[in-house]
Amino acid sequence: MQSQDQNSIYKVLKNYIPNSVMANKNKAKTWKYGYNEKYKLVIISRDGTLGDIYEISNVIIGLPKTPKTFDNQKEKKENQVWTPTIQPKVLKRIQSIFQWNEMPVSFKNSWVDYIEKEFDKREEGHWFLNNGIPTYITGTHYMYLQWTKIDVGHPDFREANRIFYIFWEACKADNRSFGMCYLKIRRSGFSFMSSSEGVNQATITRDARIGILSKTGADAKKMFTDKVVPISNNYPFFFKPIQDGMDKPKTELAYRVPASKITKKNMYVTDNEDLDGLDTTIDWKNTSDNSYDGEKLQYLLHDESGKWERPENILNNWRVTKTCLRLGSKIIGKCMMGSTSNALDKGGANFKKLFEDSDASKRNQNGQTKSGLYNLFIPMEWNFEGYIDKYGMPVLFTPKKTVVGMDGEDINTGAINYWKNEVDSLSSDPDALNEFYRQFPRTESHAFRDESKQSLFNLTKIYQQIDFNDSLILGQHTTKGSFQWENGVKDSKVIFSPNKSGRFLVSWTPAKHLQNKIFLKHGIKYPANEHIGSFGCDSYDISGVVVGKGSNGALHGMTKFNMDDAPSNEFFLEYIARPQTAEIFFEEVLMACVFYGMPILCENNKPRLLYHFKNRGYRGFCMNRPDKRYNKLSKTERELGGIPNSSEDVKQSHAAAIESYIEKHIGLDLDGTFRDVDIMGTMPFQRTLEDWAKFDITNRTRFDAAISSGLAIMANQKHLYTPTKQKSKISVNFARYDNKSSISQLIR
Fold it and tell me: Using the 8-state DSSP alphabet, how is residue 98 labeled?
């Protein structure tokens, strides 16, 4: 079942701050714009008040307090929608601050309030009633909706974009953030929104540099000439500084004389010579790893970041451009990065890593994410053209009554229903389906869907399982945690403790009477639950690694068909991590084996884990290679156990084991061979599924999860690999006799 929360792109946090604190500080208007360390939230309110508190993509954001009056409150509820204000014709004729200065005082008096209010909305944001609901948009969003000219005229108000801009404002307000990494759908409006922000920043900032990058230099230039320049030219005179050079520049847009905020106090100033230049520029660069190297940037527009193909590398570029946004430890500029993703081998893998490194829930000691950015993903159903009503809200499911869209057209089906129909129609063409997923993703895994032709295994089944898991609240099916020796006494009793920072992910733990079941034989400890299941492990020997090098250690637990109180033929544990030392990893693997009372099969080319088990008296837990009889094992194999990874036969058997398991237990069994056609397989570990999808038998070292999970399958099926006894080549014929009469007769 899908959670209702999964159809929402943000949460409103109730009672996040004590009511008394909220009331007192709102009365005094002492809430400060920026990151609030005490309450761990980012305040985007500029008027000193605090209202609703949103959680968007693991960032807690405080909005301003809802006002008591709204510009459109006199409209009927059903007519309360976002509507841009038409610029007065008399003001439209004025092209510069110099022309304004030449106008009569009476003229200025009649329009100064209007202009001043526009400046206030630009800075503080704007409230309006949307179908009776008080709705806040940031100042940047207001500039986009009210003053940005796009290819279809005025932009539409969309709830998805409202959340996007609130998140972006939080990135700007948070002194720990370098900006955002936005995983988008096709035609979401990102190029226009980011271009609008570039112009907005450039026209209010002195001595600044605004940069533009895209998947190619030609794309960056096109964004500059077709979006940035027209947006700038369409600004009203009171927002637009005097431009240096041509009206339609090709390489650089330079603002030399600023548009000062026109107020009642300065409306009479006419001395143009006293105006200081902004000295702010907007330009674009060709796509390369070193674009903008050595520059200082106020704002970086980073478009189509998921489509950088070799030899260009978005990861390398970000390492360079990130330094352009800071002075020492102080962040002085922000990056708005956004893109759909290419196939993984066409730039998508690098963007995927950058996106994952931007998770705001995972921070270092400086409070920053690994990349410095904050990631944001908005599912396609929230921003899909043709399925947004006149209030900017998505029509997710087929409505009971016809809904009027923002374009005035009727909407009779839901975005999700449309999407599912498209998926069904492309089910026989995996590559076309994966491209559709990447263009219009409903989940992050959709966005990074890879080409099917390069997979060793059945991608259709793997992705069926991944999509099914995406529709679940996996936290209800798996638990993060860690294992410890009871009271810290080694080799005593192992206990499992749920822990959000734990490295183990488990979906089943055995009943009390099955935990820590071991037995002694000749002084060696053996697992007593081998009949229930086994572990597979991909180990490592060296603790320290060069930055960016070294694979994770991986451990998987899997059950067999059994008659105990345990699932059958299911993976129940996933561990993919690289602790600070190899010894920590060895001990954690050992504790897991002891807790479940199950043996382990691991590769013996990295023997330190096997020595760890042996030296602690647990040699009986380490399975011997199942493809050889005991008398055919080498001396080391008899001593330690394990299976070599260099043997081609082992590699093929390992891959075949995973392939067979996927066919039988993953996704849907449309032929009804192993289970009913409508019953989905059970495999809650997404990282392992994704590893299977990418597995390359010619380069196995990168796929830790695939290695360990395959070994777990082989351990449970060891009887399939046991060599058969060769028949004797000596033929012995026995005579047969007919004993019906009193004398035996030889049967010839």
Answer: H
Per residue, what are the HEC states of 346-364?
Answer: HCHHHHHHHHHCCCCCCCC
Task: Provide φ and ψ at 334, rounded to 5°.
Answer: -130, 150
Give the DSSP H/E element, type plus range, for residue 26.
Answer: helix 19-28
Per the DSSP assignment, residues forming a β-bridge with 209 are 281
Look up residue 420 and give its two tokens: 């599912």
Residues 204 and 179 in one domain: yes
Confidence at residue 487, expressed as pLDDT on a 0 to 100 scale: 93
Stretches in the chain below the pLDDT threshold 70: 1-7, 245-247, 256-277, 452-454, 474, 543-550, 725-748
First-to-last CA distance in the chain? 73
Amino acid identity, residue 575? Y
Residue 735 CB: number of other CB atoms within 10 A? 7
Q: Indicate whether 42 belongs to any domain.
A: no
pTM of the model: 0.79
Same domain, 542 and 665: yes
The C-alpha atoms of residue 683 and residue 507 are separated, in whole angstroms, by 9
Closest CA relative to residue 227, chosen from 119, 291, 301, 335: 301
- SS3 breakdown of the chain: % helix, strand, coil, rounded to 5? 35, 20, 45
Whether residue 165 is found in the same domain as residue 267:
yes
Kindly give the pairing relationship between strand 533-538 and strand 600-602: parallel
User: What are 461's two structure tokens?
Assistant: 């089944």
Q: What is the pLDDT of residues 430-465, one digit of tens each?
A: 788 888 999 999 988 888 887 766 678 888 888 889
How far apart CA 232 and CA 200 sit, in angstroms, is 8
CB 184 within 8 A of CB 307: no
Is residue 548 domain-shared with residue 415, that is, in the same domain? no
* Calpha distance 131→370 (Å, rounded): 41
Closest-CA residue to 198 (of 258, 148, 124): 148
Instruction: Note whether 365 and 479 are same-domain residues.
Output: no
For 82, how many CA atoms within 13 A lie in the half-sphere containing its CB? Answer: 23
The residue behind tokens 């927002």 is: 239
